[in-house]
Amino acid sequence: MPTHEPDRRDTGPSLEQILGLIAPGMLDVVVAPRGTGVPVADVVLHDPGEERDDNARAASGLILLAVGVEVASPEAIDVLRDADRAGAAAVVMRRGSRGPRAALVEAAGQGRTALLTRRPGHGWTEVLGRLRTALVHSAPAFSAIESAGPDGVGGLRLGDLSGLANTVADLVGGAITIEDPQSRVLAYSRMDHEPDPMRRLTILGQEVPRWRVDELRESGFFQALWSTDDVLRRPADDRSAERLAIAVRHGSEVLGSIWAAADGRPLAEGAAAALRTAARAAVPHLSHHRTWGRAAARAREEAVHALLDGAAHASQAAHDAGIAADRPYAVMVAEAYDSRAGGADTGTGAVVGAEQRVLDVLALQATAYRPGCVTARCGRRLYVLVPASNGEADPARTLLATARSVPRSVVFVGVGPLAADLSGLPVSREAAELVVRVLRERAARLPVAEVVSAVATFGEVAADTSVLRVLDRVEPLWKSLSGPVHAMVEHDRAHGSQYGSSVAAYLDAFGDTGTAARRLNVHPNTLRYRLRRARELFGVALDDPTVRLLADIGLRIAARGAHGPSSR
User: Which of 76, 156, 210, 563 could make a disulfide contact with 160, Cβ separation 3.0–4.6 Å?
Assistant: First the structure.
């Protein structure tokens, strides 16, 4: 057992509080005979081979990390009983592939020490660090700062910077941006009013513009900010509203800063005091973000993808993703392109800088939009799980408005139907992806200069998605056939002719030659000539209903290949 004498406290943060503050998907409670409300004094590594002191409560109130012990191993019961005799609040063992034996679960139920398991993929160093950070976060000094009520910023999961930004925004009566020491945006509050130009540039670029950083550095503002614990004020100018800023520091180390901007109204009278409180409360959140934020984000994304793929253990994946398993969600998919490519897939699968930038902005906007939204990325796509809510703005249109503010970006946003439970998420995802494909294929038929961002729900394009499903099934068969339409398409590919596009425009215009010619930007006589030659050269007789049907199907399939992979 541990050889040091721990700080014994009758009261302190509970095991439930500690577990609630760490990233989901790391530890599981197997048995808690006294519940999870037991107080915790510290978290220590436990070596079962150490000499034990059975006469003293040597581990009273501790969470013991039993390094090297798997729950299915023969020594697991002895380790648990030793921890129980020493008064430990909980003991954590490695879960392994088989899980705990029935005898171990029974022994845990007869004692007083909670049995927890560490999941694969999380090392002991990571678990120790997160638990100790959570313990610091729950200490009385921070509990007082994060007390519930109108003047507190409590109720936040450790590392929830977006939640912190929204809470502080309510307190100061303005817009909040949380930044790292390099002036990069970590989180920002939801926007109730049109942001001033500086805030817009900062959010869209995910960092303060370099010229502004240089200006703040040269004026001595940053030097003053990093050297004081107090709030600094920057008056309004022609580019930005009034701003208050405060550094977030842990001892002598600067973790970042919090900025408050007037948001269509003057800042609250107590804004400076609220920022001082927020800066103290932000310390564990920024510490957690710096140390574990990226790993936790990856774990959450993996859990979201598992839900979208219909994972067998959906309830556990929902816990890991941080969503409520019993709440309806809709899946929203945003697909980003560099506008210079006209919204068409390059065929390389690579995500260029402009596309990555807009995905970053959309992810920030989505998580700030509504509590409970979670995101995950895959290539040029952003997946968003949006909880059902009445009386709020359409999140897809909100994202679209954000995307249109990002230079050189084209974004297609599709919204799937509401899933009543977790089992419906894969269906909602598939529907949202089909909507995006509809929007992308529509854009592929337009001149590059006319391609713009677009959004649609599944219900709005249901007929188009049905056609996509049919073409998906027909495409393999079509490629194995031959005929007049095949011959025309191959001729266009070999010689750069435009017979196929002319026939497609004619069919889309229901045989109206004038309308089709305008869409092709050619004279009607040119179109009539092409249609006549298509009949003479390949036998594509458009007065035959069967040929028209085959031409429509074949040219739609051919258009897919002409515009790169379908990214289904």
Answer: 156
